[in-house]
Amino acid sequence: MGRPREVTDEQIVVAARRCFLQRGAGVSAADIASELGVSHTTLFNRFGSKEGLMLAALGPPKEIDWVAALDAGPDARPIREQLVEHAKVMSAYFQDLQAGLGILQAAGIDPKKAYRERKGESAPEQAYRALVGWLRRAQDEHRLSKCDIDTLASTILGALHGWAFTARVCGHSTSAAASQHYVERFVELLWNGIGDTLE
């Protein structure tokens, strides 16, 4: 008998997410395990239950990739150009998040359970903190007009998250092109109020 295949938790999460998004909440742990070449007990040993696996695969991530880019900026390019760039990345993130949360809700699982076991700064807190910092630095450099940065950050995150939610529940296109078009129009609208005339 061959030695059991070694798989990382990350490989399991990626495969499970793909299966759940393609086939819905009804896909069995045995089917996911089969794709990975392991037994379904391996999945339960790592995640405790199918619900635990679903929360790990479909819930909010512990860390958000694009926070580091916000923490490092803004750079010397025009602020509006950078804001569009960051907003497109955030929009894609919120669409992925909504896709996962939709499957969890369809399975009757409260997505808040994904946060209960986590210590430290949550993913939404990371996103808000990083965006506030980026906007404040841009304003300190006189590259944004005077406005309340906390409100601006909440408006941006809320609009991008809201669009992802609306697109999912109303059946609007969630293609990359549709998302980018929305972001460009949103930033154009926002820029009328926050753009610095010197930028």
TrEMBL record:
Residue ranges of DNA binding: 28-47
Keywords associated with the record: DNA-binding, Transcription, Transcription regulation
Record InterPro entries: Homeodomain-like_sf, HTH-type_TetR-like_transc_reg, HTH_TetR, Tet_transcr_reg_TetR-rel_C_sf
Pfam families listed in its UniProt record: TetR_N
GO MF entry, a single one: DNA-binding transcription factor activity
Domain HTH tetR-type: 6-65
Keyword DNA-binding: yes
Keyword Protein transport on entry: no
Protein name: TetR family transcriptional regulator
Species the sequence originates in: Melittangium boletus DSM 14713
